Amino acid sequence: MVLGLADTTMPYKGQKYYKIKSSCSRADKLFVDKEFPPSGASLFFSRPAPADIVWKRPSDICANPKFFTEGASADDFSQGSLGNCWFVAACACIAEDPKLWKKIVPDPEEQEWQTGKKHAGIFHFKFWQCGQWLDVVIDDYLPTRYGRLIFAHSKSGNEFWPALLEKAYAKLFGDYESLIAGKARDAMVDMTGGVGEGIELEDYRSEEDKKKLFKILRKSFEDRSLMSASIRATGTEMESQLSCGLVKGHAYSITAVKKIKLVGKNLLAVFNRPKMNMIRLRNPWGGTEWRGPWSDGSSEWKKVSESDKKELGLTFDDNGEFWMAFEDFYRYFTSMDICHMINTSFFSFKKTWKQGKVFGEWKRPDRCGGCGNNGSFLNNPQYVFTVEEDNAEVLLSLEQWDKRIDKDKGKTNDTIGCTVMKTDLNRKYRMHDRMDRIHSGPFSNARGVFARINLQSGTYCIIPSTFEPGKIGKYLLRVFCTTAPLMRELVNDKPLPPQICGLRGIKKPKVAATQITVVRAEALEAQDWDGAADPYCVIHCNKKTQRTKSIPNTVNPEWNERVTFYRQKPDKDIRIEVWNHNIIKDEFMGVCVLPMSEKNSYKGGNTIRRYDLTGRGKESTVKRRGYLWLKVLHSGDMSKV
Hints:
By secondary structure, the chain is of the alpha+beta class.
């Protein structure tokens, strides 16, 4: 299953398409949407609508209106007078994939104008909003000027699905004006439920970085992810055309990423043909194209065989689609938007991911602490997740509720980001101190932020936050890993008093907490044939045990792993055993005992102490080779541990 394509759908504003359509058909009338009426308020929120804009139904615009003329394609979308190339570019990407557009356009045959049947004037489209699919109903009144559509439209004069799709998206955010300026990845996410990522090309400066970037783009294209690119523009530069034909501040959809074989000039090259890194783009305006190397009809195409041209589907039509060498693409374009279509299927020949997903909220008084620069940072929602493999690639996506709908109230998106820290192997309650920070950022006022990080096996705490403290809002947090991340929220600061049948005080409560950081060991006895060992520790406390990970091929392992025990019997000693991991049977290497009669000496918790290893049982007085280095904190205030 591709992420986002099989979730349940809710009717937007409570409007149920089939119920409304049936009612209109019985009454023999055309639907007029009172939630998004054909009036100026549906066009602009900041100014009155021009008097020459007239709302017309498709049947009043042409004699033979069609929902689709020849199916969906990128060529169906042309941008109108609205500054929403980001949305049009996203639509062009999605139109190329039937699995995607059929999710957005439910029952396309049923919505088509049919000969001999009266159309009810009602359509519906599906959009994904922060974890929920919404079914958006609209009537088919469209804004026109002099009888022609003024916003998104198809090159075919009687095809209306692009204009109707744009109208439904405008309804989602209150009016058409709200679609001016945006990020293509937001629209792509809204139409797929995928994961959005923004890339600044200047972050990939070295030749190795450029190779890495092309590899990311090629892999994303092969995974059927959606992509667009733009050239940064400021002020009057917006949508100005460069001499090479590219337009600044304009969103281009990326329709292919390929290594193209060049024709060999000698016998060796025939069998080992050089390859060119290439990218194909599409201008949603159509017509205006790249004029540089590898543009339509340029001499560079003589270096490609006719069979390869045919395989590429190469045409030189004036349709806004063109090829560029990746080097030229990198030279001119500055930003990219990617909507990753992450494969979460149980059965797949491609790489699959496991997803952890939570819906959360930054709220007052104690769950909106701001970023790590603030002392209140830990007063944010906290989630733990596990990573079972070393050097595991983990994808993080944080999506806030789009405030575009509330722009008339002066609201804008908050600056948001994620911080990942190591946490206790057995962490059950909220963190009250900061362990090693593994990742922070990127913080951005974009609707969603994305990060790709590599983690060692272990337990981590992820803290989504706004940059400034005190900001409130809802969000969706998603974590992807090759093994299930097992995410859960840390809600309570400490253990609650035990209860039976709703009565508290029946059982003895926890009265203290002991926190142990297993820092490292040194000079352990070699156990394996190669003169090393694969040591790990097992901590025993009040009938509970916790194991660290095994460190391979060393007698001087470093763990830096922490455990926290909440205790009813704080005077009982704690044992830490060291074992050597083997395939058949693990070997005991030594043990140290933390005497809790000395618990007052553990109040600081910052001192690293060395402990001798001994045998166990009858050999408890026999010293073993090696030492353990530990940090121990013991406290009766469990809300601070």
